[in-house]
């Protein structure tokens, strides 16, 4: 089933296929292929089939919308009422959420069918999906390679055609980097554009949800349903949401694309070559390129690895074995309950980040770490603000390499952190960014990263769609899948 | 900027994590490396720069102080490891005199 959400939507509306048939088709693919790929932590077969029947009735009565009857998957970081929500952690292995996240509610209201919850790095901390309590996800393009992370299950499921679209979250690149490594499209919206209510918190000033799909058009369809103000999220921004599909086909003639010189020094030659080919296509469409400079960018990973762990140590303090989730056996006293619950319930990477954050926020170190990082965060933001006076969109690779092998970076946390070198600054600045397929290095996909000014998701999707109309990388599928 | 095993032990306690001697030996060099890497921040002088707490520099929104949630104690407590008569149970905190 090579069809996109946009095509499936037409087939459903014209009754060429029913939602029940479509849902059954994808559930069968999951059964057949996911034992090996491990994209899903939970498959919600019964609920999906019931929802598909209801969707077919809605379509039959002429009340269907563009997403009615479309199967999707939710990253297991989004709370789903009555359905297990683990966040990839032993800490929440038994947690059945008592409410729906706003994103879940909105996608349900739009008529989508939830097929299940996708695998992820524990508490969204990781770039390879190797940190999941439920085992790693395999990259459908090469099963010896990682799918990226932390939204690795969502990305691999879309790439393997187990589902036409899925949600993800992005704190430092967790939508865009796996989208790149799996050869699909993934957009991280502006901070505040998509509600964080019911999205289990990692680093609250950086986390943002968004869709992973095969095409920019599909991302626009899902983002239409996901975006918007939510009174339950105190950092949700109250601005009108445009129809992201309305401007997809706008001309990009005269578009100014910036190339940060810092990003192209020492870049892998195959990735550089593919980006140059994409540039030639954009020039044919009337875009102009301009070299820009983002001088503070080299400090984005150091600043991020203070801010994200600091916020994580504070957010994850709630997991104490008292109100929900994992509890250690036979605690001797309250301190033993807290300490053993947390030591047994969290994995290594989560513990590392909790400890770094705890240290950075501890008495006497606040100015040297957290405050310093927040100051650098302003410099990074200001670099982008300045650049967007000269250009409309900034282009770079999404990741410094294609998918890497399992175990390649697990013993050296910093080498793993560097996987997000092109994406992390965008989270620090709160800007929107998208990754789209730009070719292959041997058999592994290469991602192209585009960043625009605040709340210009429509422009990003337009620029991405313009390229997808003249390229076919996004239509390729892994062999044997 | 390297951490000592004693410092890691202290941090683990502050974070309410139970680390064995073996764990401490495992985490000490890793955490030290991360902090050394983070120290690159000192390459630039930020004395006159205002910290940025919110990526859009927006203040927190306020809402009217009215009740907006209903009581769902039973539902929430059904998720807890141990409850009794509507209370969350933990090991005894106060010792008898």
What structural class should be given to the helix and strand makeup of chain B?
mainly alpha
Total helical elements of chain B: 3
Structural class of chain A: alpha/beta
Distance between the termini of chain A: 11 Å
Strand content of chain A: 5-15%
Given this structure, which CATH class of the largest domain in chain A is correct? Alpha Beta
Number of strands of chain B: 2
What is the N-to-C order of secondary-structure elements of chain B (H for helix, E for strand)? HHHEE
The residue fraction in helices of chain A comes out at 25-40%
Cα end-to-end separation of chain B: 46 Å
Taken as a percent bin, the fraction of beta residues of chain B is under 5%
Q: What is the overall silhouette of chain A?
A: globular
Structure characteristics:
heterodimer; A: 481 residues; alpha/beta; Amidase signature (AS) enzymes; 11 strands; 13% strand; B: 97 residues; mainly alpha; Histone, subunit A; 2 strands; 4% strand
Folded structure, characterized:
The complex is a heterodimer of chains A (481) and B (97). Chain A has helices spanning 5-13, 19-37, 45-60, 102-109, 152-159, 176-181, 216-226, 261-264, 269-284, 300-315, 334-345, 348-361, 367-387, 413-417, 424-429, 457-470, and strands at 40-43, 71-75, 113-118, 165-170, 185-188, 208-213, 256-260, 288-292, 393-397, 433-441, 444-452. With 481 residues, chain A is an alpha/beta fold. Chain A folds into 2 domains: 5-254 and 394-475, Amidase signature (AS) domain (Amidase signature (AS) enzymes); 297-375, no CATH class. In chain A, helix 2 packs antiparallel against helix 3 (45-60), helix 10 packs across helix 12 and helix 10 crosses helix 13. Chain B has 97 residues and is mainly α. Chain B has a domain at 5-43: Histone, subunit A, CATH 1.10.20. In chain B, a hairpin with a 2-residue loop joins strand 1 and strand 2 (87-88). The model of chain B has no long low-confidence stretch (mean pLDDT 92). Chains A and B meet through helix 10, helix 11, helix 12, helix 13 and helix 14 of A and helix 1 and helix 2 of B.
């Amino acid at each position: 089933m090579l069809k996109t959400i946009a095509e499936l939507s037409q087939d459903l509306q014209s009754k060429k296929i029913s939602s029940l048939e479509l849902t059954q088709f994808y559930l069968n693919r999951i059964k057949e292929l996911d034992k090996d790929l491990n994209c899903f932590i939970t498959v919600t077969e019964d609920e999906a089939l019931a929802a598909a029947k209801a969707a077919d009735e809605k379509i039959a009565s002429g009340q269907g919308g563009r997403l009615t009857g479309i199967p999707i998957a939710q990253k297991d970081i989004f709370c789903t009422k009555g359905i297990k929500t683990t966040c990839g952690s032993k800490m929440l292995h038994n947690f059945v959420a008592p409410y729906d996240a706003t994103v879940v509610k909105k996608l349900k209201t739009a008529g989508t069918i939830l097929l299940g919850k996708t695998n992820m790095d524990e508490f969204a901390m990781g770039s390879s999906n190797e940190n999941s309590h439920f085992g790693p996800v395999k990259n459908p393009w090469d099963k010896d390679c990682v799918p990226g992370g932390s939204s690795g299950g969502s990305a691999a499921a879309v790439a393997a055609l187990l589902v036409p679209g899925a949600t993800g979250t992005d704190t430092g690149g967790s939508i865009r980097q796996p989208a790149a490594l799996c050869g699909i499209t993934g957009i991280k919206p502006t901070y505040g554009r998509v509600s964080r209510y019911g999205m289990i918190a990692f680093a609250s000033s950086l986390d943002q949800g968004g869709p992973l799909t095969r095409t920019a058009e599909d991302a626009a369809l899902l983002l239409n349903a996901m975006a918007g103000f939510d009174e339950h999220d105190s950092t949700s921004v109250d601005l009108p949401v445009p129809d992201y599909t309305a401007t997809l086909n706008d001309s990009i003639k005269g578009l100014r694309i910036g190339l940060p010189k810092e990003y192209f020094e020492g870049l892998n030659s195959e990735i550089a070559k593919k980006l140059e080919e994409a540039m030639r296509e954009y020039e044919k469409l009337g875009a102009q390129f301009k070299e820009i400079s983002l001088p503070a960018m080299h400090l984005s990973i150091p600043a991020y690895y203070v801010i994200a762990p600091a916020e994580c140590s504070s957010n994850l303090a709630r997991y104490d074995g008292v109100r929900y989730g994992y509890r250690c056996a036979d605690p001797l006293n309250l301190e033993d309950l807290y300490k053993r619950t947390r030591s047994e319930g969290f994995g290594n990477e989560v513990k590392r980040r909790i400890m770094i954050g705890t240290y950075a926020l501890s008495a006497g170190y606040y100015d040297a770490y957290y405050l310093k990082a927040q100051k650098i965060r302003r410099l990074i933001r200001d670099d982008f603000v300045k650049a967007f006076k000269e250009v409309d969109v900034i282009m770079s690779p999404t990741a410094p390499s294609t998918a890497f092998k399992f175990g390649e970076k697990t013993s050296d946390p910093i080498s793993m952190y560097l996987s997000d070198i092109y994406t992390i600054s965008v989270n620090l600045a709160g800007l929107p960014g998208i990754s789209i397929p730009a070719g292959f290095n041997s058999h592994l996909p290469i991602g192209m990263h585009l960043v625009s000014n605040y709340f210009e998701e429509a422009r990003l999707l337009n620029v991405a769609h313009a390229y997808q109309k003249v390229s076919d990388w996004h239509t390729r599928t892994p062999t044997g899948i | 900027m390297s951490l000592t095993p004693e410092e890691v032990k202290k941090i683990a306690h502050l974070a309410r994590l139970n680390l064995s001697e073996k764990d401490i030996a495992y985490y000490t060099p890793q955490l030290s490396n991360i902090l050394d890497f983070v120290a690159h921040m000192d390459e630039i002088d930020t004395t006159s720069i205002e910290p940025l707490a919110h990526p859009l520099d927006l203040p927190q929104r306020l809402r009217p102080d009215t009740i907006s949630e209903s009581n769902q104690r039973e539902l929430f407590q059904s998720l807890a490891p141990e409850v009794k008569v509507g209370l969350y149970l933990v090991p005894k905190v106060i010792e008898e005199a």
